[in-house]
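Example for tutorial group B:
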């Protein structure tokens, strides 16, 4: 029997996929620090499992409910400490262009560009024409390459090892230290210290103990204030870094900008969907709506572009898709 690395594939239906731009001229350590903040911001799970891949100028990130995966493994007596947990997409061959592939549950739409996965979306069943067109628009597929009908779902073979690559500089390198060598080094240092310092070493130990007691007394007095200040400064720094990582205005600001454009004649916002600079919304009224008016009004608004409008179930409803320019 062949022996090698074993993997636990998390179904694509349980994963959330994100494409995160890399920081310009930043080291792996800084990129991973920024990625930690993004995972905390994007994850809706109490315990988050994650896997990422460094592309040319962006990171592919998959998130899933870690507790759900642990429960599934326990149900069939699998020790996850002995296997590598990965999203199933990382164990399937890459491609080029847009495609639909079969998953453990449902299907996944993918867009590949020069060997990089630039967009991914999961459906429980093959998408209809509208869903397929919206996926291609979100993946920035050019109008000349848009197709209205999705291709048949393709069943792909499993890879022997994942195609993803995840640099670990600053991420888990400290966990890779051989503890035997570390323990041996500490023991040698202690022996040398005792051999050369002797009584002086013991005197230093005694002095250190006295100083430590004084430190403990003062720490007990000022500890709560220091901890509160450190926590406040840490939170403020994290908030500043998050604002720098997000290039788009807040959803509340975008909705307010759209509300200013709506006519004051019972026209209202019925549906709203936003994903990293892509807005899809439905506007409704008790009278027919002028599609041309909304296209012109939205394109005149600051940072709105690529506005497209279609009727949604009648003349009184418009479904609008547009892109938001980064700040």
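The residue assignment follows.
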């Amino acid at each position: 029997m062949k022996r090698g690395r074993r993997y636990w594939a998390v179904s694509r239906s349980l994963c959330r996929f994100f494409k995160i731009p890399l920081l310009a001229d930043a080291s792996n350590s800084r990129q991973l620090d920024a990625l930690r903040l993004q995972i905390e911001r994007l994850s809706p799970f109490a315990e988050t499992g994650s896997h990422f891949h460094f592309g040319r100028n962006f990171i592919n990130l998959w998130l899933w409910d870690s507790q759900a995966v642990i429960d599934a493994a326990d149900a069939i007596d699998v020790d996850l400490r002995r296997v590598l947990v990965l999203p199933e997409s990382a164990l399937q061959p890459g491609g080029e262009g847009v495609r639909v592939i079969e998953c453990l549950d449902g299907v996944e739409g993918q867009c590949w560009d020069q060997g990089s996965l630039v967009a991914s979306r999961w459906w429980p069943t093959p998408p209809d024409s509208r869903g397929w067109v919206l996926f291609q628009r979100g993946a920035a597929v050019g109008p000349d390459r848009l197709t209205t009908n999705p291709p048949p779902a393709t069943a792909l073979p499993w890879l022997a090892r994942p195609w993803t690559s995840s640099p670990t500089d600053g991420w888990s390198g400290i966990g890779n230290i051989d503890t035997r060598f570390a323990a041996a080094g500490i023991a040698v240092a202690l022996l040398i210290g005792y051999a050369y310092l002797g009584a002086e070493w013991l005197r230093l130990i005694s002095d250190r103990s006295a100083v430590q007691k004084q430190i403990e007394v003062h720490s007990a007095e000022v500890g709560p204030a220091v901890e509160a200040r450190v926590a406040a400064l840490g939170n403020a720094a994290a908030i500043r870094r998050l604002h720098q990582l997000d290039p788009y205005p807040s959803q509340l600001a975008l909705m307010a900008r759209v509300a200013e454009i709506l006519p004051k004649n019972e026209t209202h916002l019925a549906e709203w969907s936003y994903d990293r600079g892509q807005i899809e919304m439905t506007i409704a009224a008790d009278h027919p709506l002028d599609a041309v008016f909304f296209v012109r009004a939205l394109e005149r608004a600051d940072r709105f572009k690529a506005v497209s409008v279609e009727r949604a179930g009648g003349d009184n409803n418009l479904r609008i898709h547009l892109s938001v320019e980064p700040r």
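The chain is about 35% helix and 25% strand. Compare this with the pattern of hydrophobic and polar residues in the output above.
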